[in-house]
């Protein structure tokens, strides 16, 4: 049991959230690995996914390595404070989670495959934590941008939950919500594990495979 961390694992009330700022955080123009733009406009025909699965350093690497991914970026979403800083998010007073924006070509990689990498890349049963990383910013989160993504997210959560239960894991705590605004994280966080190959990565999956090829009518 972890003592003294209750305030970190309780979502802040919107009226008590930090006020933030109008100015956006500046980020590099190009992805350090893929060489593609970090910010829109993106080429036509690409889709976007936003997921939170603990520390965003390791999570981003999972997706930039996937075939069919055009670009990735780390940032903050799911909360209330506009244009927050990393320190503000870590305070637990913004409501935001650490998330990854994945821009992908649906002809080359499906949203179902994005979800498979999401589920298998972390433990979605841990609530407001991921391993030793504790706090609301580390919660498991799917932020959907279309009704199809919402339906696919719910279906994959149910299917993966059955496999986790059969393997002895507790119920999935992943939140599935409509995507609001994505706020880019500071420059030094972008593609962090490429710039720091021996940097910290606290992500660890369950070892349970996720069903693939789920179809939603």
How does this structure look, described?
The protein has helices spanning 56-64, 86-90, 111-120, 147-166, 192-195; strands spanning 47-53, 69-77, 97-104, 129-130, 133-134, 140-144, 175-178, 183-184. The chain has 217 residues and is an alpha+beta fold. The strands form 2 sheets. It has a 6-stranded mixed β-sheet with strand order 7-6-1-3-2-8, with helices on one face. The protein has a two-stranded antiparallel ribbon with strand order 4-5. Helix 3 runs parallel beside helix 4 (147-166). Residues 1-5 have low confidence and may be disordered.
List the helices and strands and how they pair.
Blueprint: E1 47-53, H1 56-64, E2 69-77, H2 86-90, E3 97-104, H3 111-120, E4 129-130, E5 133-134, E6 140-144, H4 147-166, E7 175-178, E8 183-184, H5 192-195
Parallel strand pairs: 6-7
Antiparallel strand pairs: 1-3, 1-6, 2-3, 2-8, 4-5
